[in-house]
Design goal:
about 190 residues, alpha/beta, two-stranded antiparallel sheet, 7 strands
């Protein structure tokens, strides 16, 4: 099984993914020292599937960074542009939303183009990043509006695990709403 994750840069979508990553049901074999970035509250772990990365987000690439068993988290900013197509694959889709200004500011505070993983060259120059954030947020919110009957809103990592049908990690429950993050799941 796959769990597809998307969110605009700076939406804190990586922290949402990381909050369930340590579940015993999740295949963590995609985590290597090269596929990790940590700076203060920012933590990127495991493979990302986007243009300019070692794997693009095509389904035939999703298993490539993994060698273990369990549910695989597939993360791509650009999934936001393909949500209607992705829903036909019948995998849960987790979408993370924050307003455009907060996304842009957080992404810059987290390291901007100096982030070592994932690679953000696809989004250059900085003026393009603003456009990408706006578009990805727009696509996510339109998809949520158009598919309301299949969308569940979750407030914390425990609820997200329940909705996804995976075991809760042994780490603390992460409250998304306290961090001004809106998390939606399409099932």
């Amino acid at each position: 099984m796959y769990i597809l994750f998307t969110g605009a840069p700076g939406s804190k979508w990586s922290s949402v993914a990381e909050s369930i990553y340590r579940s015993p049901d999740i295949d963590q074999s995609d985590s290597t020292s090269e596929r990790c970035y940590s700076k203060q509250a920012v933590k990127h772990v495991g493979a990302y599937f986007d243009p300019g990365m070692e794997f693009d987000n095509a389904p035939q690439n999703w298993d490539k960074p993994f060698s273990g068993d369990g549910t695989r988290i597939i993360k791509s900013h650009t999934f936001a542009h393909q949500l209607e197509k992705l829903k036909t694959l019948k995998h849960p889709i987790v979408m993370v939303y924050r307003n455009d200004v907060d996304c842009y500011n957080w992404w810059n505070d987290a390291g901007g183009f100096d982030i070592t993983y994932p690679n953000y060259d696809y989004f250059k120059p900085l003026s393009n990043m603003w456009n990408h954030i706006q578009l990805e947020n727009q696509y996510i919110m339109q998809f949520i509006k158009d598919n309301q009957q299949k969308i569940t809103t979750v407030e914390n990592s425990q609820d997200l695990c329940k909705v996804l049908g995976i075991a809760q990690p042994s780490t603390n429950i992460r409250n998304y709403t306290l961090n001004d993050i809106k998390v939606y799941v399409y099932l």
